[in-house]
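Note to self: keep these together.
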Amino acid sequence: MPFIGPAKGGSVQYSIRRCRQGSSSARVLTMAVNADNHCLKLGFTNWPGMLQIRSNGGNLTVHGPVANLIAIIIPQLGNCMQIVVPDDPNHFGNRLPNGTWPGILGFVTRREVDMTGTFQIIDYDRYRDMDISVPVLNLPARIAYTRPTLAADLAGFIKPFTASSWCSLLMMTVVVLLATVVVQALFQYMPQHDTRMAGNDGGQWGRERIWWTSTLWTTGALLAQAVSWEPKRNVVRLVGGIWLLMSLVVSTVYRSNLKAMLIKPRLQYPFTTMAELVRTDIPCYVVEATVVHGIIERAPPGTELSQLKDQMVAHKDMPRAAAEFGDGKLAIFADEFGVRMTMQEQFERTQRCQFYIISQSFFGSLTVSFSFPKGSPLKPRVDVILTRLKEFGIVDHLFYMAVANADFCSKADSSDGPSLRPLSLGDFYGVISIYFTCVMLSAVVFVAEVVSGCLRQRH
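Structure:
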């Protein structure tokens, strides 16, 4: 284990090593709890993805992208480091009504630490009561949820057309049916009507016969089924020919769209905006006592954020929330890096891109910085180091290399090739159900005709 010694002599108070986590490696800082009081005291809290605190006997260990950054800053300051952790390592702290601060920010305002070792999302209260470093990251808030999977759709056979298209087709069918009936009925009363339109007894067709042939022709042409009756007279043939052409176009388009949807279906996401989310019953997790949580709690009535309160789940048990997020039980609403890091951890566990981030962002761009006590002489020195690290792109490299897989998954299209699947029996349940329904109706009609015929013979 390599050690880094502090400047100006003195004993080594922290050590640095590299460890392997999933598909990425990270620098881990280990610090003795009873370190020398002359070292810089840094207050740490857990931030999923950015920094994780672990206790092993008398040592505290922090790891993650923030630990990588701290490992660069501390040697540049020429100091050693002491890790300070509150009783609740997940508590950042919000300003209380009496003006005091709990959690790690209470350490800062009471000057019990020299700076925070964990980033803070800056709001007005934090900016007023403590000194803030130059912005390290600018992160909008995002919402992520489980990506839908391809599955059998019972109503898939009606999806090629929209509801308005189906209604228009039904109206056209009724209009053509009525037009065919009217044209045939008019020819019955013309003196030179075609004798081929007469019944077997040489008389004119009855009303039932006209309706039957018109319905048979209209529905048969639409369903591409052969019909024994052919339209008679030029006007009737004109109406029938137009309907044949329309039916050909409709049936061809329907079959083409149905085939395309079965081969490469497009998924319907549960929600893609905040407005759609609040219309669902999907719970949304927010880390308690964070800036995002405070903004939602203070949202004016009638806004989308105010409506989100009814389905918001807020607590500090982040491992449980991550597990429920991985199981698809809730959505996550947090800063962009926290959301992507949660997706990264799930990807390393399952090796699958199973989540998506909605394109809508919130609260502009949240400033992420370190915090210092008011008037701290350490702030200008840290600002210079952070500015140089940002100018050379080292900060972005440290953080976004930690979420490389999440970035890839957030840009992946669910309908691309890897998401395709072979057709299963469930894909045909809709068509099969209609088929058996028609068979049963035909059987009922057949039995009714047989019974009716028997009754007529007896009479």
